[in-house]
Amino acid sequence: MKPAAREMLASGARTLGLELTQQQLAQLDLLAEELKKWNKKINLTAITDDEGIATKHLVDSLTLLKVVRGPGRLLDLGSGGGFPCIPVKVVEPTLAMVSVDAVVKKISFQKNAARVLGLANFETLHARGELLAEQYPASFDWIVSRAFSDLPTFVSMALPLLKPEGRIVAMKGPGGKQEADEAKVKLESLGVELVGLQEFQLPGTSDQRSLLIYRISKN
Ligand SMILES: C[S@@+](CC[C@H](N)C(=O)[O-])C[C@H]1O[C@@H](n2cnc3c(N)ncnc32)[C@H](O)[C@@H]1O
């Protein structure tokens, strides 16, 4: 990435309370370069400029760390080009990751990126999220997604895979609260409750973001 984009990444992360090491910066830079290289052959993202990648993919993925903490097992459903899971893994390596996408070429990209970046405990899976319950029953502390699906679809897919004390985190844009309100009754009938809602501005932009956090209902 150009120096200006690297600086946007470092300062965006700092705004989130994350002081990136030189090694983490170099790994995220490498991820951006691999993304641009592969994107010429396969369609991974519409965002192709360094500044856009720095803020809208890298810093945006790291906003998840406002809520998620390691150690633990994290599942990213519909991870596409590896967002948010790869940047989060780089910055919070104590999280063991499973990254799932239904499109094989996206998973091939992630496998390559994980190798080039030297990520350990980062499993990639070419699969549909609906079909994971047998292989991963009640297995994850965190199940997350960004730009994946509506809340009821995501939550129903995540529930059989979530540990009893685990959390489901949906990364949303400015309409997150409204979506949560509209889905409230449906989500309660599925057996989850909203335990956190964070609304904030994506650092380095004027874009609004929200994080919706659910757990299995206690009553
Ligand atoms: C809009 S992309 C978002 C990718 C990434 N999370 C991001 O924010 O950049 C949605 C991704 O979900 C994947 N997907 C859609 N339905 C899926 C399913 N049922 N199981 C697994 N992946 C799915 C698609 O292949 C696509 O890569």
TrEMBL record:
Transmembrane segments: none
SUPFAM superfamilies linked: S-adenosyl-L-methionine-dependent methyltransferases
GO MF, one annotated term: rRNA (guanine-N7-)-methyltransferase activity
Enzyme Commission numbers on file: 2.1.1.-
Keyword match Transferase: yes
Location of the protein in the cell: Cytoplasm
InterPro entries on file: rRNA_ssu_MeTfrase_G, SAM-dependent_MTases_sf
Swiss-Prot/TrEMBL keywords: Cytoplasm, Methyltransferase, rRNA processing, S-adenosyl-L-methionine, Transferase
Pfam families in the record: GidB (PF02527)
A Gene Ontology term for the protein's cellular component: cytosol
Residues the entry annotates as binding S-adenosyl-L-methionine: G78, F83, G129, E130, R146
Sequence similarity: Belongs to the methyltransferase superfamily. RNA methyltransferase RsmG family.
Function: Specifically methylates the N7 position of a guanine in 16S rRNA.
Protein name: Ribosomal RNA small subunit methyltransferase G
Species this protein is from: Geomesophilobacter sediminis
Classification lineage: Bacteria, Pseudomonadati, Thermodesulfobacteriota, Desulfuromonadia, Geobacterales
Primary gene name: rsmG
